[in-house]
Amino acid sequence: SLLLNLSTVQPSNLPPKKMKNIVVFLGAPGAGKGTAAAAVAARTGARHVSTGAMLRDAVARGTPAGLEAKSYMEAGGLVPDEVLYRMVAELLAATPDGATLFFDGFPRNEAQAAKLDELAAASGATVASALLLDVSREALLERLGGRRVCPKCGAGFHVKSLPPKVEGVCDACGAELVTRVDDQPATIAHRLEVYESATAPVVGFYEKAGKLRRIDATGTPEDVAKAVEAQV
Ligand code: AP5
Predict the structure, then answer these.
(1) CA of 44 relative to ligand 1 center, distance in Å
(2) In DSSP terms, which residues pair with 157 in a beta bridge?
């Protein structure tokens, strides 16, 4: 009958929509979140989302979000949550179903972690796991002190552990490498304090949710990428 035919096209008879998956990368400044997320994203087809890189781009382009974020970033403090919520909501809405996103730098306090669950639920996404990259403070300082970045394409290098093929030149696009404005010693010290007070509690948030995976990030960039890949 007509009624029966109609019932076969009800939404409940369609295959379930594929969720968008989020993997959160946690760890102190310089732990290697960006390096590992970029390497594993390139191998797995996941999308690497760095809120720090998005904000640096907004600052460079002078957008309203960039103008609001600039002074906080230069001082090594956290940009107001609302700026991040707008960015993340737009990004999730623009992400196709079934995609995997590696979140590097968000969430950075407990309010952001709770908000991420809310924003994810509203756009058919779920936080699958949170990977904590664990390294000593000495290693963090060594990694941040030797970091060089490409201002044009965002690629990251280290003068010792991940040197570019030609000193001072980006392997990917040939631009001249720079030191990030927030990689000055006094700003690094402040960023590490902000991490301890605001961001470290996020580890407990995901531990309680049963989503935390600890990763020893003391090895080479390749060792860390392999350990991360085994968890995603
Ligand atoms: P963001 O860009 O996120 O900076 P961060 O968290 O301080 O992290 P880093 O980028 O410094 O470190 P990383 O762990 O990614 O290390 P990397 O892979 O580069 O944020 C910047 C600012 O934006 C914040 O201070 C804040 O103002 C704002 N912001 C961003 N998100 C926000 C949010 N959610 N809320 C509010 N404000 C926000 O590695 C470091 C170096 O070590 C590199 O040179 C690399 O080559 C090298 N290295 C990496 N892995 C290894 C390894 N295994 N062995 C040896 N060397 C390695």
Answers:
(1) 21
(2) 148
